[in-house]
Structure formats: structure tokens, C-alpha cells
Specification:
Layout (H helix, E strand, L loop, with lengths): L2 H27 L1 H26 L3
Length: 59
């Protein structure tokens, strides 16, 4: 497994964790507390996509 595949996996797991915590915060505290976690999860998914694409490109 290359470094880029590992980075993509880590960012996907991080985004999934941020999404779950965001759902919990949204239900318990309201939309204002959960929204930043959804934005960071979106960024983590974007970074995972970037590293996955970088891993598949031939060097």
C-alpha cells in the first residue's frame, strides 16, 4: 500500500468520524455546533479524493 493510499484512507476515516460527531452535536446542541464539523468533513473528503487520485496516477 503506497503512502498516498494510506493518506486517503486516513482522511476518509477522519471525515467519517467528523460526520458522526457532527450529527451528534447537531441533534444535541443545534445546527450552529454541528455545521463546522460538516465543513471540515467535506475538506477531509476532498483531501482523500486528491490523495486517491494522486495514488492512481502513474509516476
Amino acid at each position: 500500500m503506497s503512502v498516498h493510499h494510506r493518506a486517503a484512507t486516513v482522511f476518509v476515516l477522519l471525515a467519517a468520524l467528523q460526520t458522526v460527531i457532527g450529527v451528534v452535536f447537531t441533534t444535541v446542541f443545534g445546527r450552529a455546533f454541528g455545521a463546522p464539523l460538516f465543513w471540515t468533513a467535506t475538506g477531509s473528503f476532498a483531501l482523500a479524493w486528491y490523495f486517491q487520485r494522486k495514488a492512481t496516477v502513474k509516476q
